[in-house]
Write a structure and sequence with these properties.
Number of strands: 2
Helix content: over 70%
Shape: globular
Radius of gyration: 24 Å
Distance between the termini: 24 Å
Strand order of the largest sheet: 1-2
Mean pLDDT: 86
Number of helices: 16
Strand content: under 5%
Order of helices and strands: HHHHHHHEHHEHHHHHHH
Length: 422
């Protein structure tokens, strides 16, 4: 909730300024606030102390947790070689992809085939080598640790299907909001939206400001300069919010900014996170596989809604924004079922000394999903021309729905691999 409070105001204000005056203003504002945020952390060190600093001298004082009793599994020379190869290919690809697409340089051009570009062949080779590295390392652990780490890998696999669909909110849904959603407002509709948008902005900003003032009173003696920087930040935020609302309330006709829809995910997380977390504390708390299954199905429902709203639209016809708002609502519910609990399962299932490695696998799955999301989301206009917009959305209804049903079928296997971890 805290992270998304920042995301909410950041996307609202930077997006509004960027679409109103130019993208250089939007990026510039983001840069200014990142600088101020960095200064705030620098001056807050007296309060944070050595939080996060590794103190090796105290290692002997800590007992090894009971579950971490397997034999050690040091990296072999083969492991280091594989890590080096995969890292180099990944690093070179990260630069080669944009450079080659802009016609500057393609270091993998010699490997191009009629069916697949050379850089994608190298990425597939690197992925195969990485999977081999992961599997061979995990197999060298004792049974309980080995099974739990395979459970993490299995959950990471289904995470790809979730984020591949969920991240359409940053790709295809942005294009749909720009080109296919009825965003024009006049008269009573404009007044209603401005009032709702005003409340949506002023109320949470007032609450956050009140909380920060209370915190500043408690921490002023320790981090006065940090609190001054914080007040400067929120003074700028309040100024930008008042200017934005004044500007919109004085218009007779307006159009909802495309970036405004991006704040919905953050808003729904803030509004619903505590309610969803209550489920985990109740007798209805589902297992990991069912949390994933429900999350994937909720994302599918979101695409089903926007798909139904786009059926039969012709060139120039617009979709009601209600369909897109509901899509973001169900996508956010799906995220709340998967994203926070997924990271929690990694920390529960993996020995402390292997956490960094397994979190790397987790975020590799997210990276693969985001690459697929961008590749597929970028085809929305092509698919719309060849088939229809609803065809595109129904495709993303089927993929996460099938993945959700499949992970729930794997529930007995995943529970067995977890060895009692709830």
């Amino acid at each position: 909730m805290g992270v998304n409070a920042g995301a909410f105001f950041g996307m609202m204000l930077c997006g509004y300024i960027a679409e109103t005056y130019g993208w250089h203003w939007g990026f510039g504002l983001a840069g200014i606030f990142m600088l101020l945020g960095t200064l705030q952390f620098v001056f807050a060190k007296p309060l944070m102390g050595n939080l996060g600093v590794l103190n090796k001298s105290t290692f002997g004082e800590h007992k090894v947790i009971a579950e971490d009793t397997d034999t050690r599994n040091p990296f072999t020379i083969r492991d280091y070689v594989l890590i080096a190869i995969v890292s180099i290919i990944g690093f070179v690809y990260a630069f080669n992809d944009p450079l080659s697409k802009n016609g500057i340089r393609d270091v993998f051009a010699a490997l191009d085939t009629p069916f697949l570009r050379g850089q994608y062949i190298m990425v597939i080779v690197a992925l195969i080598l990485f999977i081999y590295l992961v599997v061979t390392r995990i197999l060298r652990y004792d049974k309980v640790v080995r099974d739990r780490m395979f459970a993490v890998v299995l959950l990471a696999f289904f995470l790809v299907f979730f984020f591949m669909s969920f991240e359409q909110g940053a790709t295809s849904l942005v294009l749909v909001a720009r080109d296919n959603i009825d965003r024009s407002l006049t008269g009573a509709a404009l007044t209603t939206f401005n009032v709702v948008n005003g409340l949506l902005t002023i109320v949470p900003l007032s609450i956050i400001s009140w909380v920060l003032i209370k915190l500043a009173k408690v921490t002023w003696n320790k981090i006065a300069i940090s609190n001054i920087v914080l007040f400067i930040c929120f003074g700028l935020i309040w100024g930008a919010v008042i200017w934005m609302l004044y500007n919109e309330f004085n218009k007779e006709a307006s159009e909802i900014k495309v970036s405004w829809f991006s704040i919905l995910n953050s808003f729904f997380i803030i509004a619903l996170a505590s309610s969803v977390s209550k489920i985990w504390e109740s007798k209805y708390n589902p297992s990991a596989a069912f949390k994933y299954g429900f999350g994937l199905i909720l994302v599918a429902i979101g695409f089903l809604i926007i798909g139904l709203g786009s059926i039969g639209i012709s060139q120039g016809t617009k979709i009601s924004m209600v369909f897109l708002v509901l899509t973001y609502l169900f996508h956010t519910l799906g995220e709340l079922f998967i994203s926070p609990v997924g990271l929690s399962y990694v920390s529960k299932l993996v020995p402390a000394r292997m956490l960094a490695f397994m979190f790397g696998i987790w975020y590799l799955a997210i990276a693969i999903a985001q690459k697929l999301a961008a590749a597929l989301g970028g085809q929305v206009e092509t698919i719309q021309e060849e088939h229809s917009l609803s065809y595109f959305f129904f495709l993303f209804t089927a993929i996460p729905a099938l993945a959700g049903l499949l992970v729930m079928l794997f529930n007995p296997l995943i529970k067995r691999l977890m060895h009692g971890i709830k």
